[in-house]
Amino acid sequence: MLFETEGSSAASSYADHDEIENFIDRCSICFYEQLDLCLEGCRDQFCHGCFQRYIVDVVKSSWGLSVTPISCPVCTELIPKHEWSQYVPQSITDTYDKFNKPYRSYIRTCHHCETDLIPCVYPNNKPNNSKLFCDLMESMLQTCEEGENHKNHTEHISVKRWLSVNKRQDWSDTKLPTHYKHIMNNVNTFERNHAKFPRFAYQISIEYLNLCENPEIWKQLQFAHIRLFRDMKCFNCKASICLHCGYDSHFNTGCEENMHNISKTLKDKDTRTTIKWKIQHSRQCPNCSIMINRDEGCNKVDCSYCGFCFCWACRSSWSDGCGFYRCSNSTNDLCYTESSEEKTELGVPNIKNIQARLITPMDLD
C-alpha cells in the first residue's frame, strides 16, 4: 500500500494552483495565448487574434434584413459596437453598418446592367406623412367619373372610412400591417373599377410605409408592398424587372411558369441548366412571394428575406399538421426528391426500418 507523504501532497497542490493560475491569464477561446483584452461588461478575456476572428465571422454571416447583435462568445452578453469595433479593421465595421440597419431595404439586382433596385426606402428624417397619405386617397376618389350619386357606393365608403381613421391617426405601429392589408384591398378594388389613373394604389402603398416608426413592423410592410407590386423599372437601363424572381417582368404569368418559358428558348446549355435547377429547387414564399431556393433539408423553412416560417411541401404557415419529413396537408412530399429512403419525424425512431433489420431468413420461410 502506498501512502502520500505531506511533501508530495503539498507539491501536488502547488502544481494544481500553478495550472489554474496559468489558465487565468489565457484567452477564453483558445486557452493558449496570453490575454490581450477584457470586455467591459462581462469581464471575459481574449487574445486579440481570437477575438478579431470571432467578430469578423459574426459580421460576415449577418447578411439578413434584421440587425444582428454581437454578443460575447462565452456568456452571450451583448457587446456594444464602440467596444468590439476597436479590435477589427474599419472595413469590417463598415460592412456591419451596411448590412445591419434597422430599416434595411430589400434589394434586387437588375440582370441586364447590375444596377441595384430598391423598391422601399425608409426616410431618415421623415415628416408626418399622414396628410400626404390622405391627400393621395382623396385625389384617387376625385378621379371617379361615375357621378355624384355613385359616391355612396360601397367601395367609396370603404376608402372614406380609412381616410377618417388616418386623419385622426387612430392607429399604432402594431396595427399597421393589418390596416395595410385591408386598406390596399379596398384601394386596389376601387382603382380597378373606378379610378381614371391607375397608379394611385402604388403611391398610397409607399406613403403608408412612411407612417411606421418601428423597424420590425416597417420590414413587414416592406414585404407586403413587394408582394402586391412585384414589377419595378430599372432607372439605368429602363428594363422592367420582377422583384419576386429577378427576371424580366411577366405580367400575365407566374414566376415558375415564366422560368419554364425562358428555359425552352435558351440555347446556352449552362444557363438552361441553371434555370432548370431553380425551377426544381425554388418556391415562392407564401408571405412575400419572393422566390427562395432549397436543395436539401426538412419541410420547415424560414424565408431568408421576410423571416416567415412555412412548410415547403404545402406552403402553409408552419403548424402541427406539417411534419418535418411527412406533411399531412400535402400529397406531394418535396423532401423526397433526391432520396427514396423513408424518413420519420425528427427524434422519432423509424419502426419499419428497425423491424426490417430484425427479420431473419428463418422468419421468411
Q: How many runs of DSSP E, i.e. beta strands?
A: 10
- The amount of helix comes to 40-55%
Which ranges are low-confidence, i.e. pLDDT below 50, for 5 or more consecutive residues? 333-341, 343-347
Distance between the termini: 63 Å
Look at the helices and sheets and give the structural class.
Answer: mainly alpha
- Assembly form of the protein: single chain
As a whole number of angstroms, the C-alpha radius of gyration is 29 Å
**Averaged pLDDT:** 80
Coarse shape: globular
User: What percentage of the residues does DSSP assign to strands (E)?
Assistant: 5-15%
The tally of helices reads 13
Strand order of the largest sheet: 1-2
| SSE pattern, N- to C-terminal | HEEHHHEEHHHHHEEHHEEEEHH
The biggest sheet, with number of strands, parallel, antiparallel or mixed sense and barrel status, is:
2 strands, antiparallel
InterPro entries: E3_UB_ligase_RBR (IPR031127), IBR_dom (IPR002867), TRIAD_supradom (IPR044066), Znf_RING (IPR001841), Znf_RING/FYVE/PHD (IPR013083)
Organism: Thamnidium elegans
GO biological process, one term: protein ubiquitination
Protein name: RBR-type E3 ubiquitin transferase
